[in-house]
Amino acid sequence: MNKRSWIGSDNKILPVVCIITFIVIIWYGFSIVLNAPWEYDKAKRNSITLSTADLVSQTWSQKRPKLPTPHQVTKEIWNTTVNQKVTSKRSLIYHGLITFYETIYGFAFGTGLGILLAIGIVYNRATAMSVMPWIITSQTIPILAIAPMIVVALGSAGFSGLMPIAIISMYLSFFPVVVGMVKGLKSAEQLEIDQMKTWSASKTQVLFKLRAPRSTPYLFTSLKLGMAASLVGAIVGELPSGGGKGLGFRMLSGSTFGNTLHIWSGLFSAAILAGSLIAIISIIQRVVLKRMALEL
Amino acid sequence: MVQSEVIKVSNLDLTFETNDGPVHALKNVDLKIDKGEFVSFIGPSGCGKTTLLRVLADLDEPTDGDVTVNGVSPREARESRAYGYVFQAAGLYPWRNIAANIKLPLEIMGYSKEEQLKRVKKVLDLVELTGFEKKFPWQLSGGMQQRASIARALAFDADILLMDEPFGALDEIVRDHLNEQLLKLWKSTNKTICFVTHSIPEAVYLSTKIVVMSPRPGRIIDVINSDLPTERPLEIRDSKEFIEISQRVREGLRAGHSDE
């Protein structure tokens, strides 16, 4: 089985490589299509006719393309990470680290808030009835509409920089944690609850000895969703805060000045950041659940 | 003995409200259980035997009637940790090893660390699981898991043991073995045991008193005092007395069914 596993159905690499190749081909195709009008314009102005080979090579190497090619984006990322000092504002690592901190703070706040709300909802009917509608309503309001208000409100209260952005990030990330943890804390079986009752266990004991461990599989699923939401929140939060830092700012300024390379390199950095953070949670999840002999 | 009567049930009625209307789970149940008795509750499903056990354990509340456990209400009995309850499923926590699972009620009841260790050792010895402290539930067979669950119910040394079809999911060979062990354990600890079962041989083999129940509404139709000797090898099941008692149980069960 091992010999052929690189091509076998249980292998993940081959399908992934196929999809990526497919996407890259389409991407190059669109680069030609979208960047061609500008090349035609230029050719017309200089009264020359473009050969297909010229068209392809020129659309793939424009300085300010409508859609940069994968190799241009790769080169841009390389130049702004390896070839820049980390402290430089031109470094993607610098901006990435800023966004990373905002994400982590937002994630920590969001997870804490989400777990507390979930405990309140599971243990107290009044909390469930009064808080749940607000939690749902909160997620129906576009974050882009709320973010500037949070920045302004917290700014006048003396909080600026990382804090307002972390709050915006929290606003997005607590929701999946609440939903998942409510389900998780309720996932103990009736028999287990009865059993606790026969021992006259207190509510706190039931929470810590039964409900919390039973909810671990749900917690990890929530954490992964929450982490992704935190990153989105951090990037959105950077837009109105005008701090001039972070991947969101980088993409915004790219968009303002028509620098598509900045947008795409920022986008990819954000994707890589999100992917790594979620991968870390997945690894912890696998180890912990295996140790607890729990499966989701 | 000052207090030989451990459980007293009189005129117990219990009706569950369901979407299809009220279900009369128990009707006019009267029962007395003395200290040190081994009482089996037997009957077809829906006869309320599990419900009766749950009422004694304060897991379900009666609609009407009087129930005392150790001379007090089931709630007070539960809160004073008067009984250990063994469920149909072992209900061991997969993230705790066997020792930690048995410690669980002791932690909840606030026993000291040394006392916990001492008691875990003692009850594991009682159910013959010494050496399995560090094993996790999934590493044990179904029978061993159920033994661990019995050990857990014994750990805080309550005088009463309530058992709801604890061996129902096990095969017959394992079941025989566990029945033998349970009898031995009962004799050595002098506990009062209430045991719910589906199986006539199991009920007759184990009990000093057999309560035959019938469904719709759940009620007691016969209480049989078994005069089998206390020393009961498995072969006793072929004896004349054993067969006679079995027949009486079977007749009771049939009579309960005939009025449908």
Write a compact overview of the structure shown.
The complex is a heterodimer of chains A (296) and B (260). By secondary structure, chain A is mainly alpha-helical.
How does this model look, in words?
With 296 residues, chain A is an all-alpha fold. Chain A folds into two domains: 1-66, no CATH class; 92-291, MetI-like fold (Orthogonal Bundle), CATH 1.10.3720.10. Chain A is built from eleven helices and no strands. With 260 residues, chain B is α/β, with parallel strands linked by helices. Chain B folds into two domains: 5-82 and 159-258, Rossmann fold; 92-157, no CATH class. Chain B is 37% helix and 26% strand. Chain B contains eight helices and nine strands. In chain B, the strands form two sheets. In chain B, strands 5-6-7-3-8-9 form a six-stranded mixed sheet, with helices on both faces. The mean pLDDT of chain B is 89. At the A-B interface, helix 8 and helix 9 of A face strand 5 and helix 3 of B.
Provide the descriptors you would attach to this structure in a database record.
heterodimer; A: 296 residues; mainly alpha; MetI-like fold; 2 domains; 11 helices; B: 260 residues; alpha/beta; Rossmann fold; six-stranded mixed beta sheet; globular
Produce the secondary structure layout.
The complex is a heterodimer of chains A (296) and B (260).
Chain A: H1 13-45, H2 52-59, H3 70-81, H4 92-123, H5 125-140, H6 143-156, H7 162-185, H8 190-198, H9 203-241, H10 247-256, H11 260-291
Chain B: E1 5-18, E2 21-34, E3 38-42, H1 49-56, E4 64-69, H2 74-79, E5 83-86, H3 98-108, H4 113-126, H5 142-154, E6 160-164, H6 172-189, E7 192-197, H7 200-206, E8 209-214, E9 219-225, H8 240-258
Parallel strand pairs in B: 3-7, 3-8, 5-6, 6-7
Antiparallel strand pairs in B: 1-2, 1-4, 8-9
